[in-house]
Each structure stands twice: as C-alpha cells, then as structure tokens.
Write a structure and sequence with these properties.
Order of helices and strands: HEEEEEEEEE
Radius of gyration: 17 Å
Largest sheet: 5 strands, mixed
Number of strands: 9
Distance between the termini: 41 Å
Shape: globular
Strand order of the largest sheet: 1-3-9-8-5
Number of helices: 1
C-alpha cells in the first residue's frame, strides 16, 4: 500500500514538472546546488532554471574524452553568470575508451536573465557538435 502511494506521488510530481514547462528553482544565496541531470543526460535538464543571486549551481553530464568530444559552455551575458569550472572525471574502469562525467559549475553574479548553451563538441574538428542544450537562467 505504501509503495502504491509513493508511486502515485512520484507520478503527480513528475506531471507537475512537465506541465509547468520544466521550470525549476534552486538555492538560496550562497548555496551550492550540484548534479542537476544526475542521470548525466543533457536532455533531462530543464529549459528554464531560476537561481538566487550569489548561489552556485552545476550540471553533471555524461562525457567521454577518449572520443575527442568535450562539453563547452557558452554564457550569453557574463555579467549575470560566470563559469567557475568545467571538470572531467573518468569512470573508475580499466576498460579502454570508457567514459566519465563532466561537472560544470556556474555562479550567479547578479539579478537578471540570460541564456546558456551546453555543447558536446569536438573543437579540433571544425566544431562538430554531437549534442546541444539551450537553457534560460533567471537570477533573482
């Protein structure tokens, strides 16, 4: 019975998230919120994200540096947001060509709205892009 109720609550919350256009709000001033898209799938990230001025937020995304691809971050207005880091951690595996996770950390500098673009690309091959995700970030 408890499992059924928990399952129904999860379904309702998922429906609310989808119905509200994937708008998500994170953090209080000074908070660090990490691992959005914890599945590592860039498509699971919301299209709009609201954060608090002074907070730091980030994304953990699947990556594989052995393929030559890496996550690039483009911030439309760097007075509103600042890229703090873009780190890659390989999977704990001895297998050749195994992937890992890229962790992108961004700081909200001042109130406003701007767009960020995440691109999984080979910058050495004319910028061949495999995946991309645009997000609107609202800083309150």
């Amino acid at each position: 019975m408890k499992r059924t109720i928990l399952f129904l609550i999860m379904i309702v919350l998922l429906g609310i998230t989808i119905f509200t256009g994937c708008v998500m709000q994170l953090g209080e001033k000074g908070d660090t919120v990490m691992q959005m898209g914890s599945s590592g799938d860039v498509d699971s990230l919301p299209s709009t994200l609201t954060v608090t001025k002074g907070s730091t937020f980030g994304f953990s995304l699947e990556a594989n540096m052995t393929t030559g691809y890496s996550w690039q971050v483009y911030i439309e207005d760097e007075e509103i947001l600042k890229l703090v880091s873009n780190d890659y951690e390989p999977e704990d595996s001895d297998a050749e060509g195994s992937g890992g996770m890229a962790t992108i950390t961004i700081e909200a500098l001042k109130k406003g709205e701007t767009k960020i673009t995440l691109e999984y690309a080979r910058d050495w091959e004319g910028g061949e892009v495999d995946k991309t995700r645009d997000m609107t970030i609202v800083v309150e």
